[in-house]
Amino acid sequence: MSCLIINGKKKLGGEISVHGAKNSALPILAASVAVGEECVISNCPQLSDIRATINILDGLGCFKSADGTTVTVNSRDLTANEIPDYLMRELRSSFIFMGALVSKTGRAVMCAPGGCEIGVRPVDIHLLALRQMGADIREDSGKIICEAPKGLTGAEINLSFPSVGATENVILAAVRAKGITYIKNAAAEPEIKDLADFLNACGADIKGAGGSTIVINGKDKLHSAEFTVMPDRIVAVSYLAAAAVTGSQLLVKNAHAEHIGTVISTFEQSGCRFDFDNNRIYIKAPERLHKMGTIRTMPYPGFPTDCQAIIMAMAAVAKGTTIVNENIFESRFRHVGELNRMGADVTVTGRSAIVNGVRSLYGSCVKATDLRGGMALVLASLSAEGESIIENTEFIDRGYEKIERDLSLIGADIRRE
Ligand code: EPZ
């Protein structure tokens, strides 16, 4: 098990590029199973979650090659439709393979993904929607068996919550269904639009992705395509936060400001100033951040839950008190205890955290509790006095390519041991 060792209080500077979006590459790789032809997907980030997805594609016999950030998949001859438990357990979001496999083979068998570090992670919304499209779904000794031997049929789906994964699963099920599927109250995250753009490049007919109503006209056949995954907006925010907590100036490249509008305005409330030009964001942070009022995580375009821990690391050293309300996941405050070990003053009551900013944190030995919580500890360590040791870095490696390489390039004193 490796750990990160960081000596804080270093000014950062220069420029840094953002890698491809994990939460776009994962559904696009799963979607390639539904296409049934060769797909070449570029700008896939080199992360453990991507490797876990490639293992699933390999297990299904669709994986052709991976060269750096380019992955080639071909599901033309796909007949397998069962994903073994040990692969599902590696990556709970692999549940979106269900829609793709049923689309391509008429059947999908996998274990329920189960909970993770941030919550129970149910899939009831996914299953209700697939049943409405004609799938026969039953559970048998922990496995979910989804069958539609005569294919799926388009339906009007009203999601009870704009679930990202459920929206993606329905798109993957509908893309080759008979007739038209309407998804109402759909998730509007940019990664959903990237998925639709990929499938439309393969000949699908999907309209409205990125909004709350998506219309999919099912097609008998799709064709091969080459596609480049969008940049990772949460990684972009993470790098901007590194500048914010160290009072630095930084240029972040491959970053679409329009994807993180609510986050940018929160950063501006903390005293950060920005310049933007085509896919580059320049940030200038104040010597010390100001409090940010009340932050409420919401479905897109609201404040993203994946940035909650990141903004809390900023609030921990800001002047004044910031309130953080986590409205999406039921246990996404596990980083609070570790931040408090570094001298932060955060109190959690239910889904609300009261963050009283302190002048400085101090280096400590802490443990990453989940992906974004781990990033919050990296940010806190960059701003802390002295040396910090962060354990359980495998959580961080799920979403950030070689974090120590990237942060060293912009002046951080960080190494992995
Ligand atoms: C995606 O997870 C992302 N993961 C998450 O990013 C992100 O935090 C989340 O969307 C919200 O934006 C990937 O894209 C791989 P949801 P997902 O379904 O699809 C409840 C990261 O850090 N729900 O929108 O699982 C659920 O319990 C990860 O990169 C149901 O109740 O999120 C949660 O409370 C973490 N029933 C809420 O909806 C369901 O059937 C949002 O979940 C499905 C979801």
Residue ranges: pLDDT <50 for 5 or more in a row?
Answer: none
The biggest sheet amounts to: 4 strands, mixed
CATH class of the largest domain: Alpha Beta
How much of the sequence is in beta strands? 15-25%
Describe this protein's structure.
This protein is an alpha+beta fold. The protein has 2 domains: 4-19 and 231-416, Enolpyruvate transferase domain (UDP-n-acetylglucosamine1-carboxyvinyl-transferase, Chain), CATH 3.65.10.10; 22-228, UDP-n-acetylglucosamine1-carboxyvinyl-transferase, Chain. The chain is 32% helix and 24% strand. The chain contains 14 helices and 23 strands. It has a 4-stranded mixed β-sheet with strand order 21-22-1-23. A hairpin with a 2-residue loop joins strand 7 and strand 8. The longest helix has 14 residues, at 22-35. The structure holds ligand EPZ. The site of ligand EPZ has 24 residues, from helix 1, helix 5, helix 6 and helix 12.
Keywords:
single chain, 417 residues, alpha+beta, UDP-n-acetylglucosamine1-carboxyvinyl-transferase, Chain, 2 domains, four-stranded mixed β-sheet, binds ligand EPZ
Which helices and strands, and how do they pair?
Layout: E1 4-7, E2 15-17, H1 22-35, E3 38-42, H2 48-59, E4 63-67, E5 70-74, H3 85-90, H4 97-105, E6 107-111, H5 124-132, E7 136-140, E8 143-147, E9 156-158, H6 164-174, E10 180-184, H7 190-201, E11 205-207, E12 213-217, E13 225-228, H8 233-245, E14 249-253, H9 261-269, E15 273-277, E16 280-284, E17 294-296, H10 308-315, E18 321-325, H11 335-341, E19 345-349, E20 352-356, E21 365-367, H12 371-383, E22 387-391, H13 393-397, H14 403-409, E23 413-416
Parallel strand pairs: 2-14, 3-13, 9-10, 17-18, 21-22
Antiparallel strand pairs: 1-22, 1-23, 3-5, 4-5, 6-8, 7-8, 10-12, 11-12, 14-16, 15-16, 18-20, 19-20
Helix pairs in contact: 1-2, 1-4, 1-7, 4-6, 5-6, 8-10, 8-12, 10-12, 11-12
The chain binds ligand EPZ.
